[in-house]
Amino acid sequence: MSDYNNNYSRRRFLTQSSLGFLALSGMPGLLNAMEGMQAMPKLPPRKASPNFKPDVEIDLLCKQERVPILVGQQTTVLQYSAKLLQGPKHTITDIPGSYLGPIIRLEKGQKVRVHLHNGLAEPTVTHWHGLHVPAEMDGHPLYTIDPGASLVYEFEVLNRASMAIYHPHPHENTAKQVYHGLAGALVVNDDEEAALGLPSGEYEIPIVIQDRLFDSQNQLIYARSMHDRMVGFYGDRILVNGRADFHIEVDSRAYRLRFMNGSTARIYKLAWDDGTPMTVIGVDGGLLESPETKPYVMLAPGERLDVWADFSGRDVGSQLVMRSLAFTGALPKMGMMMHTSSLPVGSDYPIFTARVARKVSDSPKLPSTLSKIQRYKTDETANPNQPVPIGISEGHMAMLLNGRPYAYNDVLPIERIPVNTVQLMEIFHAHGGGHGNQAPQQPASEHQGMGGMQHGGMRGGMGMGGMRHGGMGGGMGMMMTMAHPIHLHGQPFQIISRSIDADESSDYASVRDGFIVSGLKDTVLVMPGEKVRIIKPFQDFKGLFMYHCHNLEHEDMGMMRDFLVV
Ligand code: C2O
Ligand code: CU
Ligand code: CU
User: Fold this and answer.
1) Is residue 177 a contact partner of residue 170, using CB atoms and an 8 Å limit?
2) Ligand 1: does its nearest atom lie under 6 Å from the Cβ of 489?
3) Residue nearest (by alpha carbon) to ligand 1 atom 3
4) Same domain membership, residue 388 and residue 325
5) What is the pLDDT of residues 388-410, one digit of tens each?
6) d(Cα 15, Cα 43) in Å, to the nearest integer?
7) From the CB of 169, is ligand 1 less than 6 Å away?
């Protein structure tokens, strides 16, 4: 029925051939690290603690299902379903007919216990993207459970009102599980938000955007080639909330649209088709201090966006289309050429339609003040003159952060963060000299040969079994330069500056007005040639907190590291 399991063995094969390639390329340090990746220990599944008294208790099951997506045959997917064992009724809302998990609605201050049951044929673990929870509750791959096993999470909701994501995070297999359907929205409410009286109930609509590729049997197709894994996998159909050709019928009044980019790799440039500006009221980490209007908004995988959409004054029968507009620079030029999707990234296409179905006389007013954000100044950080580097580098067969692929227990000195500190951090493209002013420090052990990684990535070009097209010559690092949505687990961060290299500025002009820097973020899109400075607190919890590219193919290729909060 599904080719899910074929893909699984294919992936393992590709990993092994990458190792062979690295051995040949004479990079023993990198090879060791990649071998380390195989040796991910697995802890015994965590049980409920008798001292924890939950306000909300949920059974969360992942399993294979068949759902109707396209006309004709049903599609085999992987799906989250939930059962409320204890707590307010509105905690769980199913999205009828969708493969997406139910919306989980929590209150700030609630104590939550989740029993995750793995009904898949392979290991999994669930991560609460955006929530500030203890390291052992964060869904680190260390806590992956086998088929048939269960894992208990217990945490208190510390976040302010915001929309988080729950999705799998198993070692090197996140993208495929998310792609096949495992993802859902987790909404946190609090008093500050409630006092605003924002549109709610039927006037608050989740908009989860995903791209998928189907075969002639309506079954999902997933990444086949090394190229798909290097550049990201792109479908040719846009689904919203798990539906093709999604549309909403609205009253002539204000709505709150809560966007999430749940695609594995695709970046959107969201705008209304009639030129109505986007009124943004919040991002990943919750409400802005005051609304901002933008001609368009960039939304990369893992990012969320809270939009005020006012249909008042519009006639019954009128339509407004949310589109993704044209932009350039997100994909490597070479990748563009090789890109086989009939829906190219950066082309102009519709996402969904809103049709005014009913005239109403009343509509809430957009508040001019939304929230108060606690902000840090650079001189309040522990390291105002020495930002923690997050250097992005791209090579033929590996996607790296700070010069190294993901490996368990491979924490660099710069990746050790004292608990209860606030850190200045800088995300940049590490190749090509010029920018990337700080070379990442090495772990005490081995490792030369990383300098080569920083400049131009891995060389070579032959013998790449998985590549669709061989013969890409030297200078690969530059050619592979692309946009990366960098995500940090734990507390959200503030963006303090974005700066762009002069030679990238023409592509950048097509996206630059679509970034919101005023809100709290947990994922930031870093364009080629761009350098982003952020300030992030590391409070309350010690342990391993991942940071990675939320292009999930990149994450699984190794573009992920751990911060060890000590
Ligand atoms: Cu949404 Cu570590 O991921
Ligand atoms: Cu996350
Ligand atoms: Cu990436």
Assistant:
1) yes
2) yes
3) 129
4) no
5) 999 999 866 678 999 999 999 99
6) 23
7) yes
Tell me the CA–centroid distance for residue 356 and ligand 1, in Å.
36
Does any ligand 1 atom lie closer than 6 A to the CB of residue 323?
no
CB of residue 127 inside a 6 A radius of ligand 1? yes
CATH code (residue 530): 2.60.40.420
Classify residue 317 by burial, with Cβ atoms within 10 Å: 0-12, 13-18, 19+.
exposed
424 shares its domain with 445: yes
Q: Is the pTM of this model over 0.70?
A: yes
140 lines ligand 1 (CB under 6 A): no
Task: Please indicate whether residue 304, judged by its CB atom, sits closer than 6 Å to ligand 1.
Answer: no
457: left (phi over 0), alpha (psi -120 to 50) or beta: left
345 within domain boundaries = yes
The answer to whether position 17 is within a domain reads yes
More confident residue, 385 or 461: 385
Burial of 276 (0-12, 13-18, 19+ CB in 10 A): middle
Q: Find the domain containing 9 and state its range.
A: 3-37
If you count DSSP H runs as helices and E runs as strands, how many of each does the chain have, helices first?
A: 10, 32
The number of the ligand nearest the C-alpha atom of 165 reads: 1
- Identify the CA nearest to 486 among candidates 424, 439, 532, 434: 532
Joined tokens for residue 4: 């899910």
Compute the distance from residue 66 Cα to the ligand 2 centre, in Å: 27
Three-class secondary structure of residue 535 per DSSP: strand
Ligand nearest to the CA of 128: 2
The number of the ligand nearest the C-alpha atom of 485 reads 3
- How many Cα neighbours within 13 Å face the side chain of 280? 26
Which amino acid is present at 512? R
302 touches ligand 1 (CB under 6 Å): yes
Is the predicted pLDDT of residue 443 greater than 50, yes or no? Answer: no
One domain, residues 311 and 434? no
pLDDT at residue 128 in the model: 98
**Residues 524 and 549: beta-carbon distance below 8 Å:** no
Q: How many domains would you assign to the chain? A: 4
Residue with tokens 């500025």: 505
**What is the number of other CB atoms lying within 10 angstroms of the CB of residue 357?**
13
> From atom 1 of ligand 1, which residue's Cα is the shortest distance away?
129
- Nearest ligand, measured from the Cα of 130: 2
- CA dist 342 and 351 (Å) reads 15
Same domain, 394 and 322: no
Tokens of 42: 């697995």
